[in-house]
């Protein structure tokens, strides 16, 4: 699969998309980027689910998704929507469908949008076509939600777990929608690996353009984790695409209370609402947006407190720092000259600073263009800034300096308190270097989304955990009270625990 044409590198132009209505919320067209979240309550618990949806709505997230893993959960969406409306909330309600296609038909009777995963859905039995007609009749939107960790076997066997495979999976379903003349469709290409995620979305846009498709795009980095690190990882991936003008609705997936996701998503949406300036690119052939290539010979990008001898420091001064810096790098007389990208920020909080810097500067590292990062932020200590810079380098997958936690945000399928468990695992393992640990609520996307992880901790049933080494199961159905100690033992046994 080849890029059909070079993306616009000189200025910010938002990708045109057709309008899709999700209940009372419209996305695409000329509408601003919408933000959303997902409940982590049991979908069978009407009161708890409604209360959480209302908290998310009050925070500014007017699209909320709930898992419907079975018929019972699908039917209870009706009770949830009725209570929500009785309380005066017009929140757009989305059903998340995974393994059981029949549940989509149940959920579509009640909700404003249905999200299906092509990896767990078929197109050869007429079920998808029937769902389209049901959605058309009720005015329900569809999301074709591709997950890097759960591609269909037939796609995986031909393409592997690649960005190209993700695009093949999405386009198969989008073509069916077009054949049925159904345009109330949103598409997403999620991964916990920012490099895979960004490449997949860019390839998708090229594939859609080639077939004159203009469906809105939902952005998100899955399993980003929590705290500032989770926010930075999301900002790098989402920022790289929004800087390209891609994205009509976003979710920042955090292993925290879902309402905490909304301020971060709103910050990103507002940060990319306007990107002024045009920056001529003299050598677009030096840039490959969907294939990672190191531009210079620098093997480990630097932070600003490290020696910068031999590096050129380029500072962004405009309101569109990503495009400005990218143009400056691509226009260098010496194409492989090492570059540190710099920008000054006058932000009141470290979290806001981290999100904006990650969104502005992270994409240049993610694409292999920059070789170092310099955040100029008076009012914050050098150590705090250094930590943020290292987080951005790690989120861009160019330098690993700490344990990385691939942790899902949890949902109604989660089988344990994942927020507390992540904190406990982090407390025991954060001193380890260059390790990736997956902490997943359930097996739906868990093993696939943590494919890059060295070790995995996955919910297997109520009070039960399965441990992984890479993609291999090591121990199944361990009592949760023993699981953390067993994980530590597993890491020690494989020589990844310092003496």
Largest sheet entry: 8 strands, parallel
Given as residue ranges, the uncertain stretches (5+ residues, pLDDT < 50) are 1-6
The helix/strand class is alpha/beta
Please give the alpha-carbon distance between the first and last residues.
Answer: 47 Å
Kindly estimate the percentage of residues that lie in beta strands according to DSSP.
15-25%
Query: Helix segment count?
Result: 15
Question: Kindly state the mean pLDDT as a whole number?
Answer: 90
Q: Write down the Rg.
A: 22 Å
Secondary structure tally: strands: 19
Strand line-up of the largest beta sheet: 8-7-6-5-4-3-10-9
Shape: globular
Percent helix, as a range, is 25-40%
Written account of the structure:
The chain is α/β, with parallel strands linked by helices. 38% of the residues lie in helices and 18% in strands. The chain has 15 helices and 19 strands. Strands 8-7-6-5-4-3-10-9 form an eight-stranded parallel sheet. It has a five-stranded mixed sheet with strand order 15-16-17-18-19. α2 (71-86) links the parallel β4 and β5 (92-97). α1 packs across α2 (71-86). The protein is globular and about 65 Å long.
Structure summarized in a few sentences:
The chain is α/β, with parallel strands linked by helices and 499 residues long. Helix content is 38%, strand content 18%.
List the helices and strands and how they pair.
Blueprint: E1 20-22, E2 25-27, E3 34-38, H1 46-59, E4 63-67, H2 71-86, E5 92-97, H3 101-107, E6 113-116, H4 127-138, E7 141-147, H5 153-159, H6 163-179, E8 185-190, H7 194-210, E9 218-219, H8 227-242, E10 249-250, H9 261-271, E11 302-303, E12 312-315, H10 321-330, E13 339-344, H11 350-366, E14 372-376, H12 382-395, E15 404-407, H13 418-429, E16 436-440, H14 446-449, E17 455-461, E18 464-469, E19 472-479, H15 480-493
Parallel strand pairs: 3-4, 3-10, 4-5, 5-6, 6-7, 7-8, 9-10, 11-14, 12-13, 13-14, 15-16, 16-17
Antiparallel strand pairs: 1-2, 17-18, 18-19
Helix pairs in contact: 1-2, 2-3, 3-4, 5-6, 6-7, 7-8, 8-11, 8-12, 9-11, 10-11, 11-12
């Amino acid at each position: 699969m080849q890029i059909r044409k070079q993306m616009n590198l000189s200025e910010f132009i938002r990708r045109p998309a057709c309008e899709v209505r999700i209940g009372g919320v419209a996305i695409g067209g000329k509408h601003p980027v919408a933000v959303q979240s997902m409940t982590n309550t049991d979908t069978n618990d009407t009161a708890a689910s409604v209360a959480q949806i209302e908290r998310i709505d009050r925070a500014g997230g007017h699209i909320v998704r709930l898992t419907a893993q079975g018929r019972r959960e699908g039917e209870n969406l009706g009770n949830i929507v009725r209570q929500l409306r009785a309380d005066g909330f017009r929140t757009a309600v989305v059903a998340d469908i995974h393994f059981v296609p029949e549940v989509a038909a149940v959920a579509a009777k009640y909700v404003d949008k249905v999200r299906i995963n092509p990896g767990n859905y078929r197109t050869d039995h007429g079920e998808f076509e029937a769902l389209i007609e049901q959605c058309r009749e009720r005015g329900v939107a569809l999301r074709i939600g591709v997950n890097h960790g759960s591609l269909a076997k037939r796609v995986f066997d031909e393409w592997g777990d690649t960005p190209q495979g993700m695009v093949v999976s999405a386009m198969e379903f989008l073509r069916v929608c077009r054949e049925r003349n159904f345009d109330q469709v949103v598409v997403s290409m999620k991964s916990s690996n920012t490099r895979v995620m960004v490449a997949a979305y860019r390839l998708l846009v090229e594939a859609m353009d080639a077939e004159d498709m203009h469906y809105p795009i939902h952005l998100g980095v899955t399993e980003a984790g929590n705290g500032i690190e989770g926010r930075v990882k999301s900002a790098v991936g989402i920022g790289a695409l929004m800087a390209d003008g891609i994205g009509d609705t976003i979710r920042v997936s955090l292993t925290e209370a879902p309402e905490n996701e909304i301020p971060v998503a709103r910050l990103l949406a507002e940060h990319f609402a306007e990107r002024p300036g045009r920056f001529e690119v003299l050598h677009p052939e030096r840039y490959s947006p969907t294939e990672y290539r190191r531009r210079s010979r620098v093997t480990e990008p630097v932070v600003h407190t490290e020696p910068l001898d031999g590096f050129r420091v380029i500072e962004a001064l405009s309101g569109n720092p990503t495009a400005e810096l990218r143009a400056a790098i691509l226009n260098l007389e010496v194409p492989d000259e090492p570059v540190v990208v710099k920008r000054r920020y006058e932000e009141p909080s470290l979290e806001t600073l981290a999100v904006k810097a990650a969104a502005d500067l992270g994409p240049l590292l993610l694409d292999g263009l920059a070789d170092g990062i310099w955040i100029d932020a008076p009012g914050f200590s050098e150590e705090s800034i250094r930590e943020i810079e290292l987080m951005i380098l790690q989120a861009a997958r160019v330098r690993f300096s700490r344990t990385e936690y691939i942790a899902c945000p949890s949902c109604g399928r989660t089988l344990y308190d994942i927020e507390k468990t992540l904190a406990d695992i982090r407390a025991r393992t954060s001193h380890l270097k260059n390790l990736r640990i997956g902490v997943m609520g359930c097996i739906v996307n868990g093993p696939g989304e943590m494919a890059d992880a060295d070790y995995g901790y996955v919910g297997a049933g109520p009070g039960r955990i399965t441990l992984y080494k890479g993609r291999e199961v090591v121990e199944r159905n361990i009592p949760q009270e023993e699981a953390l100690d067993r994980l530590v033992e597993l890491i020690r046994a494989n020589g990844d625990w310092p003496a």
